[in-house]
Amino acid sequence: MTPRRGQAPRALTVIPAVGHSGVAGPSTEAAPAVLVLPGGGYAKTADHEAEPVAEWLASLGIHAFVLRYPVAPDRHPAPLAAAKQAMLWIRRGDHGLNLDPSRVGVLGFSAGGHVASTLSVGVSTGDPSLDVAGALPNLSVLCYPVISFVDSVHQGSVDNLAGAGAEPEVLRELSAELHVTPATPPAFLWHTADDHSVPVGHSLAYASALSRAGVPVELHVFPHGVHGIGLASGTAGADQWTGLCAAWLSRMWA
User: Fold this and answer.
1) 68 vs 176: CA distance, rounded Å
2) Burial 132-151 (b: 16+ CB within 10 A, else e)
3) Does 101 sit behind a cis peptide bond, omega within 30 degrees of 0 on the bond before it?
4) What 3 state SS string does 10-31 have?
5) CA distance 183 to 108
6) How many CA atoms lie within 13 A of 117 on its CB side?
7) pTM for this model (two decimals)
8) Full pLDDT tens readout for the chain, 254 residues
9) Cα separation of 227 and 46, whole Å?
10) CA distances from 56 to 59, 131, 180, 193 (A)
11) Other CB atoms closer than 10 Å to residue 233's CB: what's the count?
12) Please, what is the Cα angle at 228 between 227 and 230, to 5 degrees?
């Protein structure tokens, strides 16, 4: 259901940017925005990858929108459709924030990274009102993302989103690395080398596909860190990702 004007889509939390002067409060300038998609293997959406991340983005002068997208028993295209609806609502401006619609990105963790990557490469929902250019982000930040449904798969995500025994063509359709084009937006990715839940090969595959297509990409692989560490406070090495990402965002949106 399309939300009424001024009404946020269901399960979308809005956290306005902090003023660029460093004084707390909504920014008075046209600020960029990021849609935050927590992980959870399409079985849940993890709280520690939601509002805390949005608050960090807001501290950078970025309006943040946290989406708790549908998970199992809902299947594809429900999560992607919710993300596209949220992107269109953000750009439309019904939230009342002073926002630059040409600088709207997406940030996703794990399965949320899969939503973000399929959003970025334009995977179809089958709904012509959602499968439009305005639903695509201008850039993506992918944190230990699920990317492929055909190689080194995270079986829980596959089963929860596509269903057990999904046909090969469905799995290929949901593998973001297979659909990158020169029009895919730039990406910042990070992963840990010893992630045993979602192997680092997922990030490597997407970064390689972007590079082959001539799309700007920045990738950081840290030696250690369990899957699902979010902002990674206290994890040596991986705790650098927020500073590296903030610098990347500043360059991209300069």
Assistant:
1) 21
2) eeebbbbbbbbbbbbbbbee
3) no
4) CCEEEECCECCCCCCCECCCCE
5) 20
6) 32
7) 0.94
8) 344 445 566 689 999 999 743 444 554 679 999 999 999 999 999 999 999 999 999 999 999 999 999 999 999 999 999 999 999 999 999 889 999 999 999 999 999 999 999 999 999 999 999 999 999 999 999 999 999 999 999 999 999 999 999 999 999 999 999 999 999 999 999 999 999 999 999 999 999 999 999 999 999 999 999 999 999 999 999 999 999 999 999 999 98
9) 12
10) 5, 30, 29, 25
11) 10
12) 130
Q: Is residue 253 within 8 Å of residue 32, measured between CB atoms?
A: yes
CA gyration radius for the chain? 17
Phi, psi at residue 52, to the nearest 5°? Answer: -60, -35
Cβ contact 238:125 at 8 Å: no
Characterize the bridge pairing of strands 31-37 and 99-109: parallel
Secondary structure element (H or E) that encloses residue 243, with its range: helix 241-252
Phi and psi of 237, rounded to 5°? 90, -65
If you search the block for the tokens 């269903």, which residue do you land on? 163
C-alpha to C-alpha distances, 173 to 1, 8, 140, 201, 251, nearest whole angstrom: 25, 29, 19, 18, 32
C-alpha angle 106/108/112, rounded to 5°? Answer: 120
The helix-helix angle for 111-120 and 78-92 (nearest 10°) equals 60
Q: Which amino acid is it at 181? A: T
- The residue type of 119 is L
Q: Which two tokens stand for residue 123?
A: 């995977």
| CB contact set of 175 (below 8 Å; sequence gap of 6+) | 147, 148, 149, 150, 151
Q: Strand ranges (DSSP E) for 110-186?
A: 139-143
CA 116 to chain centre: 4
Query: Token pair 């992963």 is at which residue?
Result: 191
